[in-house]
Amino acid sequence: MKIWIFNHYAAPPDCAAGTRHYELGRVLAREGHQVTVFASSFSHFTGREERLAPGEKMATRTIEGVGFFWVRTPSYTGNGYRRVLNMAHYAIRVLWAQRSLNRPDVIVGSSVHLAAVFAAWLAARGRRVRFVVEVRDLWPQTLIDMGALRENGLPARLLRWAESFCYRRAAAVICLLPGATEYLKARGVPPKEIHYVPNGIPDLPRPAEPQQPLDPDMAEPGHGAAELIERIRRFRKDGFLVAGYVGSHGPANGVSTLVAAAAELRAPGRPPVAVVMVGDGQEKAACQRLARRHGLDNALFWPPVQKQAVPAVLAELDVTLFCLRDVAVFKYGLSSNKLFDYLASGKPLLFASNAPGGPVRESGGGVCVPAESPSEMAAALAGLAEMSETERERIGERGRRWVYRHHGMTALAGAFLAAVSEPGQCDEDPGQGVRV
Fold first, then answer.
1. Cβ distance 415 to 197 under 8 Å?
2. What phi and psi, each to the nearest 5 degrees, are found at residue 419?
3. CB-based contacts of 23, cutoff 8 Å, min separation 6
4. What's the gap between Cα 147 and its chain centre?
5. C-alpha 436, offset from chain centre
6. 3-state SS of 290-313?
7. Which of 28, 31, 420 is nearest to 197 (CA)?
8. Above 50 in pLDDT, residue 66?
9. What is the pLDDT averaged over residues 186-208?
10. Whose CA is closest to 375, among 260, 294, 252?
11. What are phi and psi of 219, to 5 degrees?
12. Which of 62, 272, 353, 397 has the highest count of CB atoms within 10 angstroms of its CB?
């Protein structure tokens, strides 16, 4: 089967970005399917042009059997009008680029934003092929609940119309959120067309890649994963329990809660705990200012590391950290990449969110506290610090076993293939993986 995926922010694991479609694609490629991912060459996560040389407008590359087709989009910072312009450029340029390629069997439009989904519908309509929507974030509901849009404002109404328009024209809707079925039904999606295919973790070994030279912008001391690991080891040598967060520092993440918890952990009588925050985003500078205001010597901020370096970083930690703000849209559940990466690391996970259920509760692989509660987060970290290393290892191992059992990528690729295929086209059992 020939599958195209329009995902603005997709990437292989050579930088800080989402690798869902790379991981799904390489499983499907092993089974003889052709997967091409259309993505922007400008990285939202690093704020840099990552893929194209000066003057290039597009480029292609095949990685582990997965085709990537990168198109140039304008640079931006933050969430202003230039990001909207970047989204529009992506939609226009993938539509133009795909005209020169042979016809696929199905085109998948993957949100975050609806311009990518609408472009996928236009391409599928022009090619007369099956159109599938993949919902990774609920737009515009997330923007409304985050306070970025007014519920009854014109932008929200236009996005709501575009969302329903795309859903109604899709042959199937893939959703990553376990509780979003009712939301999708309210938008006109028949229940039989809704397919739950969450994120997961690789259960195929990734290829060993040759060592790449450091990017000149990242070569100065204090930026690489090796330097980060050394800093973590130094904390541990000094007697600290080291808890780490690896991911975006955006408005929804609530990283400031981690900083406030680190401040509470400096109180007399508390065990020594260091909090390491790896990544970037529009809230990072404010979090750094907060840490300086508290004079924290137990909080470390670090730039993003390559996706393929994340397991090595997690292996050095004692505890992993996951936090979100208390936002209504999370009632539909979570399917965050880093959540599954954390569980796969075999480290206990401190989960600070009000989202219902979730892998941490189901697996017993960590401790859950309410969102935006630094005092409860600090108390939980103190409790983990007072445990023996063996006790923490038992908790982490429960999470590791659970995530490989329920979120291995081979089985998820089978479910994804079933969702994008015509009924009866794919001889597949989602519990057993891909069969062709």
1. yes
2. -70, -40
3. 200, 202, 409
4. 21
5. 29
6. HHHHHCCCCEEEECCCCHHHHHHH
7. 420
8. yes
9. 85
10. 260
11. -85, -15
12. 353
Average pLDDT, the chain: 90
Strand partners, 42: 49
In the structure encoding, which two tokens stand for residue 73, read together? 């989009």
Question: Helix, strand, or coil here: 43?
Answer: strand
Identity of the amino acid at 319: V
Is residue 4 within 8 Å of 104, Cβ to Cβ? yes
Closest CA to 7 of 180, 136, 126, 125: 136
Q: Take residue 269 and report the two structure tokens written for it.
A: 């009588």
Structure-block tokens of residue 61: 């590359």
Helix (H) or strand (E) holding 81: helix 81-98
pLDDT at 409: 93
Whether the Cβ atoms of residue 303 and residue 280 lie closer than 8 Å to each other: yes
Structure tokens, 246: 């690896």
Cis peptide before 221 (omega within 30 of 0): no
Average pLDDT over residues 379-398: 97
Minimal CA–CA distance to 384: which of 368, 372, 370, 362?
368
> Following DSSP, what letter does each residue of 126-193 receive, concatenated?
HHT-EEEEEESS-TTHHHHHTTSS-TTSHHHHHHHHHHHHHHHH-SEEEES-TT-HHHHHHTT--GGG
Of 128, 209, 115, give the one whose Cα is nearest residue 166.
115
- The two tokens of residue 270 are 């508390």
- pLDDT per position as a tens digit, 312-364: 999 999 999 999 999 888 888 887 888 999 999 999 999 999 887 678 989 99
Q: Which two tokens stand for residue 110?
A: 């993957």
Angle subtended at Cα 163 by Cα 117 and Cα 105, rounded to the nearest 5 degrees: 35
